Predict the structure.
Amino acid sequence: MQNLLPRDGELYYQPSAWNIEEAQHWQQELIHTIPWQHDVVKMYGKLITTRREVAWFGDSALSYTYSGSTKIALPWTPALKLIKEKVERLSGTSFNTCLINRYHHGGEGMSWHSDDEPELEPRSTIASVSFGAARKFEFKHKHTSQTLDLLLENGSLLLMKGVIQEFWKHQLPVSSRIKEERLNLTFRVRRTTAPE
């Protein structure tokens, strides 16, 4: 795979890591077996309940804190274990946690941010899997404001590596014309010891 970033990090995209039938199967399996909850995040000093739903899975009840909200990992389901094994094989990385976002339609998105929380291993790979509606995903360099757009397709795998979180922000913009659901699984390497 070719690095899609011009500078300051690595970004790799595989559009058909899962074929359409496999992607549809996993999307339905996860929709019906994951204990979804609406996310609660702190924005502009206030706690906001999001329209999108989330779930956090991982080894040994690992926690994860972002936007003022802390989650304790649920144990891996059989379906997530199978997806995780394939992601690890394709990426060459072992992951110990996964954040899943459920976007019910294009009116739900995610604003500009970097996945640089102190609980995550610095410069570790983050693998993003998409099942469902194809959605535009945007990157913006923190210093130059250079931008890059990708269309994340059903069954695709996106790998963010190296210093990308230090230099680039990303977002999932809303799009009212998209009526279908999208599931996004982001596999991460969470520290097992406190940062020094």
About this structure: The longest strand covers residues 46-58. The two ends are 34 Å apart (CA to CA). The mean pLDDT is 93. The longest helix spans residues 20-33.
